[in-house]
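Could someone model nicotinamide-adenine-dinucleotide with this protein?
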Amino acid sequence: MKNIVILGSTGSIGRQTLEVIDLHRDKFKLIALSARSNVDLLIEQAKKFRPQYVVITNGNTDKVRKELAGEKIEILEGYDHLSTIASLPQVDIVVTALVGFAGLIPTLTAIEHGKDIALANKETLVVAGEIVTRKAAENNVKILPVDSEHSAIFQCLMGEENSAVEKIYLTASGGPFRGMSRNDLQHITKEQALKHPNWSMGNKITIDSATLMNKGLEAIEARWLFGLRPEQIDIIIHPQSIIHSLVQFVDGSIKAQMGLPDMRLPIQLALSYPERLPNDFPRFNFMDYPQLTFEKPDTQVFRCLAIALEAMRKGGNYPCVMNAANEIAVYAFLSDQIGFLDIADIVEETLNKAEYIQSPDIDTYLECDRKARETAEQIILKKS
Ligand code: NAD
Ligand code: MG
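Reply:
Sure, complex below.
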C-alpha cells in the first residue's frame, strides 16, 4: 500500500490522479488533498475518498468545515499547510499537481522529508531544477515524471542504466495554431487558444501549449530530470501526439514510447513504479493512425520556444525570471489585458531587464521570481 498526498486535487491532473487511485484502491491510499479555491469539488472528493487532511489555500474554508463536519478529516487553511501535508510521516508519495511557481516550496519540503515526488508541476524544475534534483539525490528521493514526454523518456531509459544517451527528442503536438503565421496570430482570442487539439488540460498549460512555451519549459524540465546538456535536447513537432518522446543512444539506436494521449497512463506509472498495473484505458489502434508525421518547430512564429531554449542555455536565474514573466503574461492574456503575441514580448523584455545571477540559492530564486513578476506587470501596464 502506498500512501499518497495530492497537491492540487481539483485540477486536471489532480482529478485524473483520483481516477487512478479509485481504480486501484488496494494499492493506493489517499492521505491528503488540497485545492486553491474550488471548495465544492474538494468537498465532493473528500467525501468520496475520506482523506485524513484537506488544505484550502485561498477559498471558503468555512463552507468546507460545515460540509465535512461529520467526517474525521482535519481541515487546514493557507498555503503553508501544503508543506504540512507534503511532510506527514505516513506519506510515501506527493503528487505535485498544482500550477506554477507555487509548487516549489512544498515540493522541496516533501523532498527534505524523504517523500518520493510524482512530478506534474514542471515549473518547479524550470525555476530551481539544479537545487531540486540535488536535494532529491541527497535525500534518496525519486522524482517520477507525470508529464507525458518525460514519462516517455523515463520509460525508454528503463533497463538502460549502463547505456549512454546521445540525445533525446521531445515531441510536441504544435498546439491549435500550428502552421499559422505571425499575421494570423495577431487577433487570436483566448477561446481559440484554449482549444487544444489533443489534450484537455488546465488553462495555464493550455495557453503554454499554444505559444509553445510549454515545450521550452519541458526542455528545461528534461535537462534536470535526466541530467542532460542543453544541446542533447531536440524538439520535434508530431501533430498526432502518439509518440510521446524518444531517446537516441550512443550507438544510434532510438527508443520511443507510444500510446493514445491519456494522462492517466503516466500518472498511474508514477504512482505504481517500478510495477506496471493493468487497466482498461482505451488502446491504440494502428489503423486509426495510418500516418504519424513530423515537422520542425517554427521558432520565428512561436518565439516563446526560442526564448525558453535560450534561457535554458544561459541557465542561472534566467529560467526562473522567464517562468515568472510567463505566468504573469499568460494570466494577463486570459483576462483580456494583452494579445497573444504580447506574451513572448513581455517575457523577453522582462528577461532583458533582469540581472543575471549564475548560481542562485532558494532565497535568491524567491526574490528573482518576485522582481520578475513586478517587472512583467509594469510592462503590461505600459502596453494597455
Ligand atoms: P489546473 O489548473 O487544472 O489545476 C491546478 C490545481 O492546483 C487546482 O487543484 C488548483 O486548485 C491548484 N492550484 C493552482 N494554483 C495554486 C496555488 N497558487 N496554490 C495552491 N494551489 C493551487 O492545472 P493542471 O492542468 O492540472 O496542471 C497542473 C500542473 O501539471 C502544471 O504544472 C502543468 O504544467 C502540469 N501538467 C499538466 C498536464 C495536463 O494534462 N493537465 C500535463 C502535463 C503537465
Ligand atoms: Mg507534456
